[in-house]
Amino acid sequence: MSILIKNGQIVTAAETYIADIYVEGERIVAIGEDLNYDAEKIIDATGKLVFPGGIDPHVHLDMPFMGTYSSDDYETGTRAALHGGTTMVIDFILQTQGDTLHNALKTWQQKSQGKAIGDYSYHMAVTDFNDNVAKEVVQMIEEEGISSFKTFMAYKGALMIDDGQMVQLMKVVKKHGGLVTVHATNGDMIDSLIAKNKALGNLSPLYHYLSQPEVTEAEASARFSDMLHYTGCPGYIVHMTCEGALNAVRIATQRNQKVFVETCTQYLMLDASLYEKDFEGAKWVMSPPLREKKDQAALWSGINQGLVQVVGTDHCPFMWEQKKMGKGDFSKIPNGHPAIEHRMELLFSEGVHKGKISLTKYVEVSSTNAAKIFGMYPRKGTIAIGSDADIVIFDPKKEHIISVETHHMNCDYSAYEGQKVTGKTETVLLRGQVAIENEECKLNAGNGQFIPRGKTSITVI
Ligand code: URP
Ligand code: ZN
Ligand code: ZN
Ligand code: ZN
Q1: Which residue, 14, 168, 229, 421, is the most exposed by fewest CB within 10 angstroms?
Q2: Which numbered ligand comes closest to the C-alpha of 69?
Q3: Which segments constitute the Amidohydrolase-related domain (predicted)?
Q4: What value does the mean pLDDT take over residues 260-289?
């Protein structure tokens, strides 16, 4: 298939200009003014923005968690992502404590192969570190194209590792050119606050929020950064929510450390007042929880300061019936919310349209930086000759309203019900194939490819 995209305003992390793009097979072959190719399909992009396909490096598809499974699988999740202009996701493989990384890898391959519609890769979550796992970490980097290792400083007894294991993991990962990523909250502090609130009979979703105050995240972010400093390993803090945690990274960057930061759409635009809606607040029960307006302001400015490099979603949807597992006990509400579909549109509307970030910054945080940090640039994350033709044609003026009635995620509520958005994904190409056109997904399950990643190309960012 060959496609010619005419007259769009191309946006990369570096610049924006009007030109044509010619795509042949899976790749971008030419970019220039008035290109003259005999293409099978011509798309007129006059008045439209043309972005590299979005990359969401934080999603949980078909994940076993808190006694149930997240409700989007690889098929429904990557389809919804494509509808919103995200052409690639990075999901998390969870090692079962006491079992091997390779067994966990097999389980996730079964979840994704033949099912994914969009492209994907995996982070490997190390939940139990020992000498054998250390050898497997090296094999993941050298043989499996998995170069990022997720750790949890919370969820004790299920996913959490202790500081001793963390330091050992960092040493191995550093030596072999990988990256350690982290859910940075102090699990012991949170567990004691949960126990205290339950003993007092404080059982509504509001107490999920009150059991994870800012200090629990700031402390863990600082401790993680210090362990990185001690081991010399590069690191990445996922789903950062607050000013205190960001200040910990500010100190680390003053020591010239590589500590990358991801925030998520919801932490930039939603706040903790949503937990005051009685049990409806369960819709936004996630960890860490939503915070305050002052934290939103700190995160937006963190993006512009270059302290926050990536905006993901932590997409981890549960049906309302699943959320009700925690009716009468907030600690049993499955943590997570549906978000994969609307990241690009929300970030454009709240960020670019409202003047908080520039167009080039938008592309940086929604696509390019994730590709660079996670070792797949420039194949992914930019519009350049030779790159995969993952391309979003976006109408910056079109207004629409987010609703469960129209979204494609397998979740029976929307976290943004009724929200007006300016800017809409119109056409999406995935490796040169038309994925989304006229609000329809044109690709089938099994089309998505696993993208093996190189050693983290941390020197390019
Ligand atoms: O609430 C959340 N974030 N659920 C998914 C698991 C995690 O901690 O990222
Ligand atoms: Zn949409
Ligand atoms: Zn997390
Ligand atoms: Zn997560």
Answers
A1: 14
A2: 1
A3: 49-434
A4: 98
**CATH of 2-51+383-397+421-441 given 2.30.40.10, 3.40.50.10860, 3.40.50.280, 2.60.120.10:** 2.30.40.10
Listed residue (314, 223, 213, 304) closest to 262, CA to CA: 314
Taking the complete model, does pTM exceed 0.80, yes or no? yes
- On the question of pLDDT at 149 being above 90, the answer is yes
Q: Is 314 in the pocket of ligand 1 (CB under 6 A)?
A: yes
Q: Ligand 1 within 6 A of 183 CB? A: yes
* ipTM field: 0.93
pLDDT of residue 456: 76
Report the separation in Å between the CA atom of 39 and the middle of ligand 3, taken as the mean of its atom positions. Answer: 45
Paired residues of 406 in beta bridges? none
Short-list 324, 287, 284, CA closest to 68: 324
Q: Is the pLDDT of residue 457 over 90?
A: no
Q: Domain residues of the chain, as ranges?
A: 2-51+383-397+421-441, 55-379
Atom of ligand 1 nearest to the CA of 285: 1
Average per-residue pLDDT for the chain: 97
Q: Nearest ligand to the C-alpha of residue 312? A: 4
- C-alpha distances in angstroms, 73 versus 108, 110, 431, 448? 11, 11, 22, 13
Reported as half-sphere exposure (CB side, CA atoms, 13 A), residue 141 has a value of: 21
